[in-house]
Amino acid sequence: MFKISEVDKDDSDLVWLVSELDAFQSELYPAESNHCLDLSTVSDEQFRCVIAHDQDGSPAGCGALLFQANSSAEIKRVYIRPEYRGRKLGELIVTAIETIASEKSSRLLRLETGIYQQPAITLYRRCGYEMCDAFSPYTADPLSVFMCKELP
């Protein structure tokens, strides 16, 4: 059982998970194709974060939303620690993110992930996301996959 809660971007568990995610992605992609968002560069009004803890209170995964113009938002920083994968935690995090987006009247969610992260792509497809073209601030990259979903 997992508990998902909203946290500030400077939450120590979130910072730890994001640093683990950055290390994971730096092994997969060259710097120019690694689109890691530095949390210190966004305002609290633009950014909302969730973290999942297991029944013992250990951080298991995280995710975030970066709000943009035109009622859209970008899913950022979704990460599940390896020992928690395969337990449907990704779906719980994406659902929590989508709930926050709906509460903030975002109607279009977009994301960028990498071609070597097939489990992530599978997760997003299961959650109803479809492939799309690159969106700002990105440009087409052979190592990137872009996806989107319209919310009701």
From TrEMBL:
Q: Which SUPFAM superfamilies does the protein's record reference?
A: Acyl-CoA N-acyltransferases (Nat) (SSF55729)
GO molecular function, a single term: acyltransferase activity, transferring groups other than amino-acyl groups
Domain (N-acetyltransferase) ranges:
2-152
Ordered alphabetically, the record's keywords are:
Acyltransferase, Transferase
Q: Its domain of life? A: Bacteria
Keyword Transport assigned to the entry: answer is no
InterPro entries linked? Acyl_CoA_acyltransferase (IPR016181), Bact_Acetyltransf (IPR050832), GNAT_dom (IPR000182)
Indicate what this protein is called per its UniProt record: Putative acetyltransferase
Source species: Sodalis ligni
